[in-house]
Amino acid sequence: MVGRTPEWLGKKIEAREIKYAALGALFVPTMVLTLAALSIVTKGGLASVYNSGVHGFTETLYAYDSMSNNNGSAFAGFGLTNFSADFGTIAMLLGRFVPLFAGARARRRAWQEEDRARVGRHVPHRRADVRRPARRRDRADRRPDDLPGADARPDRRRADALMRTLFSSVIAVVVLTAVLGFAYPLAMTGFAQVAFKSQAEGSLVSANGKVVGSKLAAQEFTGARYFHERPSAVSYNAAGTSFANLGPRNPDLAKNVSTAAHAILKLEGPYNPGLTIHGVPVDAVTTSASGIDPDISPAYAQLQAARVAAVRKLPLATVRQLIAKNTAGRSWGFFGEPGVNVLELNLALDREAS
Q1: Cβ(269)–Cβ(280) under 8 Å?
Q2: Can you give the pLDDT at residue 241?
Q3: What is the C-alpha to C-alpha distance for residues 330 and 351, in angstroms, rounded to an integer?
């Protein structure tokens, strides 16, 4: 209403509170924009940005926004350098703790002002002898409308409230850790070992009694007698999966695709007369989302079949039959695309040769 100071939860909201709230709301966005701007105008910052133009800027903006407000995630096009690590630490510290400290400081000042004014935060009179004067027999001269004095031991009340909050927090941490950190993982692990033992152990593949890999992770094959995986942005490192994340207008993507395509033509051309760059499958020259995709397309497998058959001195029909046996169809008949597991195909070739 006009002429009346607005209130919230029994407290008056005046000009100072509005200014503090505005500053708190604007601090984190301003910091995120500042860090993102420094990342794209400085040499050290640009070393973290793998993509140019709007694509690179949006990835940078997202990275600092996530580090200051969320879980600190980033796209693969935003790399980890000393610059991004230092600025990311600043974003995490300031984005999380400055608003907390500012809010705690504002609350403490509000309590101090209330204590100096000798008024309560929730009710007009918190003292029992004012609210219930009829029960006070020892001070009959006290009138019900007397103003209360300073509350007794305000610091003790705050300390008790703080201890109750801390105790509740500790109990919550212990219970949630026990349930979600121990009981639930143990239950899921036990269920997986009973119902899906092979998958739970990593879908491992063995040959001659020795583990040689996993159905779920690609590994590099370089010999001409083996089928090759698709390119990897992480050198087939299963401990650090990632992807190139190069935009369609990024010149590095065109350069990488051209280099890979010419390498395919050089390797497969002698065994496939008339092969041109238009006959090279897409997955032969592009990286997968994880960098360790174990499957290749049937088209890429068929392109390599002539080379493998010639080097191993096997009939081409035999190699193609092995490709067909190790080709997985679409999930449920319509999800995804057919794929050939390279590791299992190469092991099948070795068994055929032996």
Answers
A1: no
A2: 79
A3: 27
